[in-house]
Amino acid sequence: MVLHAKQQYLWEYFNMTKKYTIYFCTLFNLGFISSMPGTLGSLVAIPFGYLILKYHGIWVLIFTVIALIIISFFLISKYLQINESNDPQEVIIDEFVGQLIALIFISDHIIDLFACFFLFRLFDILKIFPVNRAEKIPGAVGVIADDIVAGLMAGTILIIFNILG
């Protein structure tokens, strides 16, 4: 009887962990409801990141990004095992994180928000070098890496635009 109860607990724990992994990786199932889930993930990141910047500052946003990258790596790895897939379209936490990275580099102008979104999506969709190289890394690292690189590229362009005026 004790063994049965322990097995039941482990089974329930596994199912709960699987459920929360799916919720996290798909941004609470948003990745399932759109024909353009990556764009939706990026759009959701804009107000989230902007509010962090406005009320808590850049260091909290940077800490949030680092924490999300670490958590994402482990949970995307688990998601890939569950679904036996390389880079499922419904996994949009990576786009969310990549967009947050690009937001680190914006100024106070509203135009920067639009440019940030546009540039990140451009680099993420077109997979321009080095984004295409990062995407080829196997496993969860590759799923996350291309969006990190796209976010950094978008941020670099934003810095250049702001310096040039």
Compact overview of the structure:
The protein is an all-alpha fold and 165 residues long.
Layout: helices, strands, pairs:
Blueprint: H1 2-25, H2 37-56, H3 58-83, H4 93-103, H5 110-126, H6 131-135, H7 139-164
Low-confidence stretches: none
Shape: globular
The whole-angstrom Rg is 18 Å
The helical percent reads over 70%
Per DSSP, the total helix count is 7
SS class: mainly alpha
Number of strands: 0
- Describe the largest sheet: none
Mean pLDDT: 89
Strand fraction equals under 5%
Distance between the termini: 72 Å
What sequence of helices (H) and strands (E) makes up the elements? HHHHHHH
What can you tell me about this protein's structure?
The protein contains 7 helices and no strands. With 165 residues, the chain is an all-alpha fold.
